[in-house]
Design brief:
This protein has six helices and three strands; from the N terminus they run H-H-H-H-H-E-E-E-H. It is of the alpha+beta class and 191 residues long. It is elongated and about 80 Å long. Pfam families: COMM_domain, COMMD1_N.
């Protein structure tokens, strides 16, 4: 295999590992990658290469390495003695792959770390309540804030929650938000 073919196969392997690990493409299996990219490699040798590249990519992704950190990490890996080290070609392929895929892998890791749906949007308005009850004795109410929250995960359809708050509730929410801001400011100014 020429150096160009080796680099292409290794880049394909890294892409396959990322597709399975970070982008939830379960159809990308180790056997598929071996058959498509390294048909001449024994299953044992391919398994060792696959595990090594998966481990290196995991280390790089979990640390969200910037270019300087990546260069230092790859240099240290190339200097390792024994079977644990890597070749210059492998380091180069990993470096090219990480430069092009860092943002996508980071975004995927962040999405996987969220357990609950996130806030996608917020719409609000203030209305006057026409009455505080039903029937002829109903008195007109005061202003109300109507909030519509759009919640969801990136890969799902949004859900909407509508809230109605009177003036007292809005003031309580604003006070809590001011308390949170003061707490954040205290921590930020302390560090």
């Amino acid at each position: 295999m020429s150096d160009i073919d080796t680099a292409k196969s290794l880049t394909g392997l890294l892409n396959g590992i990322a597709q399975k690990a970070y982008h939830n493409h379960g159809e990308v299996t180790e056997d598929l990658l071996r058959t498509e990219l390294y048909p001449d490699l024994s299953p044992e040798d391919f398994h060792a290469l696959h595990d090594k590249m998966r481990g290196l990519l995991k280390s790089i992704a979990m640390a969200d390495m910037d270019p300087g950190q990546l260069e230092a990490f790859l240099t240290a890996q190339m200097k390792r003695q024994g079977g644990g080290g890597m070749s210059e070609g492998q380091a180069s392929a990993l470096s090219r792959f990480w430069r092009s895929q860092r943002a996508r892998v980071r975004e995927s890791l962040l999405a996987q770390s969220r357990w609950e749906p996130g806030l996608r949007g917020l719409a609000w308005r203030v209305d006057l309540q026409t009455s505080s009850g039903r029937g002829p004795e109903a008195a007109p109410g005061g202003p109300v804030a109507l909030l519509e929250l759009e919640l969801g995960r990136p890969s799902q359809v949004s859900e909407y929650v509508c809230l109605e708050c009177d003036e007292v509730t809005v003031n309580q929410v604003l006070k809590k938000m001011a308390d949170i801001q003061r707490s954040i400011d205290t921590v930020v100014h302390r560090s």
